[in-house]
Amino acid sequence: MSTNLLVFATAAFFKIAGSFAFWTWLRRGASPFVAVLGVGSLVVFAVALTRVDSVFAGRAYAACGGIYIAVSLVWLWLAEGQRPSLTDLIGAPTTFPRKFPKTGLMIVRHSGAISGIPSRK
């Protein structure tokens, strides 16, 4: 479990870094070389996500989503110097996936929507 969290956090960091590279290239006028670094970062993100202990890719993506939001808020604060707002801090935990082993159901909450995803062992 803790290994998966580390992989999710690593994947989220590289996804954010890669996306931010394109942001700085296209919106802030950075060198196209920054975009090339962003592509490399997004490749590392994709490879890292394959290291998660999950049989189904969709379940790994859903779980990564909650971690991605938390890491995004850390990025916002540390890399961009913008403190997360109160609504950021209240909303982020609602996106974390919760698995209920007795029911075989994984609940993913995102943007107020709740969906049940059947889990297979």
Task: Describe what this molecule looks like in 3D.
With 121 residues, this protein is α+β, with helices and mostly antiparallel strands. The chain has one domain. It contains four helices and three strands; from the N terminus they run ααααβββ. The radius of gyration is 16 Å and the shape is flat. The model is unreliable at 99-121 (pLDDT under 50).
Give short descriptive properties of this protein.
121 residues; alpha+beta; flat
Q: Output the strand order for the largest sheet.
A: 1-2-3
Radius of gyration: 16 Å
Low-confidence stretches: 99-121
Q: What structural class results from the helix and strand content?
A: alpha+beta
Mean residue pLDDT: 80
Helical content, roughly? 55-70%
Shape: flat
**Hey, roughly how much beta strand do the residues contain?**
5-15%
The secondary-structure element order is HHHHEEE
End-to-end Cα distance, whole Å, is 15 Å
- Total number of helical segments? 4
**Main sheet properties:** 3 strands, antiparallel
Number of structural domains: 1
Number of DSSP-assigned strands: 3
